[in-house]
Design brief:
A hairpin with a 4-residue loop joins strand 6 and strand 7. The strands form 2 sheets. A 9-stranded mixed beta sheet has the order 7-6-5-8-4-1-2-3-9, with helices on both faces. Strands 11-10-12-13-14 form a 5-stranded parallel beta sheet. The chain is elongated. The chain is of the alpha/beta class. Helix 2 crosses helix 3, helix 5 packs across helix 6 and helix 7 packs parallel to helix 10. It folds into 2 domains: 198 residues, HUPs (Rossmann fold, 3-Layer(aba) Sandwich), CATH 3.40.50; 118 residues, Rossmann fold, CATH 3.40.50. The chain is built from 10 helices and 14 strands. 31% of the residues lie in helices and 22% in strands.
Length: 349
């Protein structure tokens, strides 16, 4: 297994996404378990992404060095944040902030000398970028990884499939590959000391279509993001409508958490897609997951099953969620919810 390259991505506000730090942590663990030393990792990462011949030689001796690249001009603060998790990061000024996936993929493809595998977030932008990079390089893609480990045939990629019913372990048929990493697969852990950031500007690739972005429209989002929430109060079809989510919002505020939802609630138009949890929504890992009126179908379970504690309220004693919830309350969610809210307000008062 050769050197690894982590591709960082930006949040809408220009900061580095949390998932990027998780991907960096996973890549470091993969490189370390393959036998790379900390010293040679830093040298090789700089060589692989910045074009240093000396660094590249050190990397090939170690065999599994790790570096990062952030294809976003002007994102100095985000690059510095990524360098807290990687020994070396290249800020690629050749990609503008509004560059499309194909344009950014062309910039990354120019930095793959000495790289065997690329790891990037399994976010909507990350999936677009992985597809474009695969088209340019001919490298295969293994998506939504939940874990990796080295082998003589390259990285072994673990994936959760069929709604979480099965776990597969796959390797690439060739010596190169692209891996997208699912959110909350690992806990992000920074380095003891930040790595170095190098700025480079690759000339634009004229063969790639230059798409002009004429407008940005920000989707309606939740008041509190569910991505990093320690406590999530989630509602399903049993909530009955948009008014029912008012109680859930009150509970979330009293607990200091965020409101989530199932696909059924989102598809019904009761709550924005940004708060959807599950196979076609977000993967969350809160300390407490309070499920109100949620049956617990496998598609939803995929998104919340790693919560530290799951408390569910449902009138159906035989709902699937009863099989894996830590506490399952059989009752009307509004009666239980109002009683819980009263207790919370009494204690806070």
């Amino acid at each position: 297994m050769g050197s690894l390259l982590v591709v960082g991505e930006l949040a809408p506000d220009g900061t580095l996404t949390k998932l990027s730090t998780e991907v960096a942590t996973l890549a470091r663990a993969l490189g370390a378990s393959a036998g790379a030393s900390a010293g040679s990792t830093a040298g090789s990462a700089a060589g692989s992404t910045a074009g240093s011949a000396a660094g590249a030689s050190a990397g090939s001796a170690a065999g599994s060095a790790v570096g990062g690249i952030l294809p976003a001009a002007g994102a100095d603060a985000a690059a510095a944040e990524l360098a807290r998790f990687l020994p070396s990061v290249v800020l690629e000024a050749g990609a503008t902030a509004d560059a499309n996936a194909s344009q950014r993929a062309a910039v990354i493809a120019a930095a793959l000398d000495g790289i065997s595998h690329v790891l990037l977030p399994a976010s909507p932008d990350g999936r677009d970028l992985a597809g474009a990079l695969s088209a340019l390089t001919g490298w295969g893609v293994l998506s939504n990884a939940t874990g990796t480990e080295p082998s003589d045939d390259g990285p072994v990629v673990e994936q959760s499939v069929f709604g979480g019913k099965l776990i597969t372990r796959s390797v690439f048929s060739g010596d190169h590959g692209i891996i997208t990493v699912r959110p909350n697969t690992v806990t992000a852990e920074p380095l003891a000391a930040p790595g170095a950031v190098t700025t480079r500007q690759t000339p634009p690739v004229t063969s790639i279509a230059q798409v002009r972005v004429v407008d940005h429209i920000e989707a309606e989002g939740a008041a509190v993001s569910i991505d990093d929430a320690r406590i999530i109060v989630a509602g399903g079809r049993g909530v009955g409508g948009p008014d029912g989510f008012g109680l859930l919002q009150d509970l979330a505020m009293a607990l200091g958490g965020a409101v989530g939802a199932t696909r059924a609630a989102v598809d019904s138009g009761w709550i924005p897609y940004s708060q959807q949890i599950g196979q076609t929504g977000k993967i969350v890992k809160p300390q407490l997951y309070l499920a109100m009126g949620i049956s617990g179908a496998i598609q939803h379970k995929v998104g919340m099953q790693t919560a530290e504690a799951i408390v569910a309220v449902n009138r159906d004693p035989d709902a699937p969620l009863a099989d894996f919830a830590d506490i399952y309350v059989v009752g009307d969610l509004f009666d239980v919810g109002r009683a819980l809210l009263e207790q919370l307000r009494t204690r806070s008062g």
